[in-house]
Structure to design on (303 residues):
C-alpha cells in the first residue's frame, strides 16, 4: 500500500510524468487496436471466438526477432510476419477452423484454445521460455529535461499501425472482397443467395486476421517484447477491447485500444509491473459484468 501511495504522490507532485505515461499508452494502444480489429472480423463474420489471437501475435513477434538476429532490419518483419501468418492462417482454417464454423460456441472455443496451446508449446521448444525483444538502432527521444523519454521504435510502431489500419479499412470499403466480407457479416444466408462464396469469404477473413496479427506481433517485438506464453494476455486484452467497443463500431474499437494502452501504463506504474496482467483480467471481468447488466436492461425493456 505504501508503494501505491508513493507512486500516486509522484504523479501528483510531478504532473509531467502523467504526460509521459499517456503518450506511451497511446503509442502502445494503437497496436492493440490493430490486432483487435482482426479479432472483431473473425468474430463478426465467422462467429468464431479465436482464443489463439494473442498466440498469432507471438508468432509474428518471433519472426521479427529471428530476422533481427540475422542482421535484417526488424521493421521489415512487419511485411514478412504478415505473409507468413497468412499462410499459417490458411493452414489452420483448412485443417481446423472450417470444421467448427457451424458448430456451437463451446466447440470453437475448445478448438482455438487447443491451437493456442500447440502454438505456445511449439514456440517454447523452438525459442525457449526467455523474454526476447527485437533490437533496433533507432534512438530514444527525451523531453522536459529528461523527465519524458519516448523510444523512437514506439513512434515508428504507431505510424505502422496507423498505416496498416487505414489500408485495411480502405480495403474493406472499396474492394469487392471487402464488400463481400461485410455482406457475409450482416447475413451469411442472404449473401449466399446473392451469389457470394461464403466459404471463400470465411477463408480469406481468417487469413487476413492472421496476417494482421503477424504485423501486430512484429510491432510488439520491436516496441515491447515477446515470450511463448504471453499470447494469452494479449488475447484477453483484445477480447476486452472488442467486447467494450461492440461489433462494427470501428471508432469505439480504436478508442478502446488506446484506452487499454493508457490503462495499462498508469496501472502498471501505480501498482507495479507485477500486477499489470492481473489488471487486464480484472478489466475483462468488469467489461463482461457491464455488458451483462446492459443486456438485462434491454430484456426488461422488451418485456
Amino acid at each position: 500500500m505504501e508503494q501505491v501511495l508513493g507512486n500516486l504522490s509522484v504523479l501528483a507532485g510531478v504532473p509531467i510524468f502523467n504526460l509521459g505515461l499517456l503518450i506511451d499508452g497511446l503509442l502502445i494502444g494503437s497496436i492493440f487496436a490493430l490486432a483487435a480489429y482482426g479479432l472483431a472480423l473473425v468474430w463478426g463474420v465467422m462467429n468464431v471466438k479465436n482464443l489463439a489471437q494473442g498466440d498469432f501475435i507471438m508468432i509474428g513477434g518471433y519472426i521479427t526477432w529471428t530476422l533481427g538476429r540475422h542482421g535484417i532490419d526488424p521493421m521489415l518483419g512487419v511485411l514478412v510476419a504478415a505473409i507468413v501468418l497468412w499462410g499459417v492462417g490458411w493452414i489452420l482454417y483448412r485443417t481446423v477452423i472450417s470444421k467448427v464454423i457451424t458448430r456451437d460456441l463451446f466447440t470453437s472455443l475448445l478448438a482455438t484454445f487447443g491451437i493456442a496451446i500447440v502454438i505456445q508449446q511449439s514456440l517454447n521448444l523452438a525459442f525457449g521460455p526467455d523474454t526476447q525483444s527485437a533490437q533496433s538502432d533507432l534512438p530514444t527521444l527525451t523531453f522536459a529535461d529528461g523527465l519524458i523519454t519516448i523510444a523512437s521504435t514506439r513512434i515508428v510502431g504507431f505510424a505502422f499501425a496507423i498505416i496498416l489500419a487505414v489500408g485495411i479499412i480502405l480495403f474493406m470499403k472499396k474492394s469487392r472482397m471487402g464488400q463481400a466480407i461485410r455482406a457475409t457479416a450482416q447475413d451469411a444466408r442472404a449473401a449466399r443467395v446473392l451469389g457470394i462464396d461464403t466459404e471463400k469469404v470465411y477463408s480469406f477473413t481468417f487469413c487476413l486476421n492472421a496476417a494482421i496479427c503477424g504485423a501486430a506481433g512484429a510491432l510488439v517485438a520491436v516496441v515491447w517484447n515477446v515470450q511463448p506464453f504471453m499470447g494469452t494476455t494479449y488475447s484477453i486484452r483484445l477480447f476486452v477491447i472488442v467486447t467494450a467497443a461492440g461489433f462494427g463500431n470501428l471508432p469505439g474499437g480504436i478508442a478502446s485500444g488506446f484506452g487499454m494502452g493508457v490503462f495499462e501504463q498508469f496501472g502498471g506504474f501505480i501498482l507495479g509491473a507485477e500486477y499489470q496482467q492481473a489488471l487486464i483480467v480484472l478489466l475483462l471481468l468488469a467489461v463482461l459484468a457491464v455488458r451483462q447488466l446492459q443486456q438485462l436492461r434491454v430484456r426488461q425493456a422488451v418485456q
